[in-house]
Amino acid sequence: MRPCSWHDCPLPAAATVAFELPNLLAGSRRDYCAAHTVQVCLARGTVVVAARFGPHQPALPSLPDAPAGRRAGRASRTRRKGVVP
Ligand SMILES: [Zn+2]
């Protein structure tokens, strides 16, 4: 198994992340450990193409049942309702 591409990270890679525009690394793929995959995927243009997470699957920010995301979604929807004509 390849090591995590994150600088100085000693952990083995758990997922492959593909970079697309507008990311600066567009066209390349890199392997990261579970924690750094989540961190890298916060950037624009990142796609997880091969996740091999074990039982400790990290909570991705895009999951609909994440408590923080649900609260933010409800707040923005209420706010947007008054702004959009
Ligand atoms: Zn790492």
Structural account:
This protein is an alpha+beta fold and 85 residues long. The protein has one domain (15-83). Helices cover 28% and strands 18% of the residues. It contains two helices and three strands; from the N terminus they run ββαβα. It has a three-stranded antiparallel sheet with strand order 2-1-3. It is globular and about 55 Å long. The model has no long low-confidence stretch (mean pLDDT 79). Zinc ion binds at residues 4, 6, 9, 11, 32-33, 35-36.
Compute the average pLDDT. 79
Q: Can you list the ligands bound to this structure?
A: zinc ion
Helix content: 25-40%
Question: Which strand-content bin applies to the residues?
Answer: 15-25%
Count of discrete domains: 1
The geometry reads as globular
Spatial order of strands in the largest sheet: 2-1-3
Task: Specify the number of helices.
Answer: 2
SS class: alpha+beta
According to DSSP, the number of beta strands is 3
| Spatial separation of the terminal alpha carbons | 53 Å
Q: Main β-sheet, in a few words?
A: 3 strands, antiparallel
- Low-pLDDT runs of 5+ residues are none
Order of helices and strands: EEHEH
Work out the radius of gyration: 16 Å
